[in-house]
Design brief:
Immunoglobulin-like; 10 strands; 20% helix; disordered N terminus
Amino acid sequence: MKRALPLLVPASLLAAAPVAARDSLGVFDSWGAFSDASPRRCFAIAEPVRPGRAAGWRPFASIATWPGQAARNQLHIRLSRERDPRARVTLSVGERRFELVAGNADAWAPDTRTDAAVVAAIRSGRSMSVETLGKGGQPFADVYPLRGAATAIDAATLGCARR
């Protein structure tokens, strides 16, 4: 199955910037749910607790549904800084560990089965972290509280099901 294009919009900009086709579906603790009309997509999104961000972008974690591509609950992570291209990216939720596929500063689940397992872990977890090595070899982790995540994911799923 072809993967949907990654969502590249940080949470803070979603709430603050007026975007013609973007609808807010709700804010649930530190997670928000939004929908876009074109291309049709709905997503839950959050920023890490302490975004040790590099200049030029803001980190986030999102779970998106793309009805036109029959894609549901796809994970997308924007790291807080560029990673070493040789470094693995690992997402941890409680005892569960998931190896992600990654570009310079973005990471995704390798397949739909992993997406589903990540979302299931998020639903029952308290926090998640994404760990890798930065360009200079220094380890870093982006940490996300998960309170409100399940509700935001549900709101995004329902938001796309309504139309």
